[in-house]
Amino acid sequence: MPTRFETVDEFLAAQSPERRAEVDALRALVREAEPGLVEIVKWNSPSYTLDGVDRLTINAAGRGPVRLILHFGTKRGEQKGATPTFAGDPDGLLTWHSDIRASLTLPPADEPVDRRDAVVAVIQAWLADSGSNR
């Protein structure tokens, strides 16, 4: 049975050094985007709430890249295949999974600073969007 993590520290301790470095880099971008987020463990991963609503989750499971899942919590219905209306991703960094859920991958450490800044800007725009038009 997979380990169930109660805290972010437990989650981090269970990661390989390379994976932990990637998760910590993504956590730093999230904190830079919005220092007021509350970091918790939900869905057995580091997750972030804003005003009590789940908005971001780090997905480090499997062998693929560490991803940040951007969502609007669990109370809103999700339509897979529906066209998203979010306009805060001018560089096309997001991969859409439904009308209210997208993901982005951690930029490689050797990427230019403007790519990192673009990731922070997308996170900020996502958090500013209440999703009320969905």
From TrEMBL:
The chain positions of domain YdhG-like read: 19-127
The superkingdom listed in its UniProt entry is: Bacteria
Pfam families xrefs? DUF1801 (PF08818)
Protein's name in the database: YdhG-like domain-containing protein
Q: Which organism is it from?
A: Agromyces allii
